[in-house]
Specification:
Helices cover 60% and strands 0% of the residues. By secondary structure, the chain is mainly α. It is globular.
Length: 75
């Protein structure tokens, strides 16, 4: 999610303002210290100009599967 925000050229503060949350909450999400609900995720993606499904595939690709290998997005 950090990469998505940075690619869009948004600071944490500007994204937080667009999402109507605190900058510290954006920071906690990006550090993995807080979960993001699906509606905030959609708003985050829209603010960054990315389709939520595409962003979710990217996030899932970074997570290990139960077998320990990265999960590859389905085409």
């Amino acid at each position: 999610m950090t990469a998505c925000r940075k690619k869009a050229g948004l600071s944490q503060a500007l994204l937080a303002q667009q999402l109507e949350v605190g900058q510290s909450y954006v920071s906690k999400i990006e550090r993995g210290e807080a979960y993001v609900d699906v509606l905030l995720f959609v708003d985050w993606c829209q603010a960054c100009g990315v389709r939520p499904g595409v962003a979710l595939d990217r996030v899932l690709a970074t997570l290990p599967s139960p077998t320990g290998r990265p999960v590859k997005p389905k085409n």
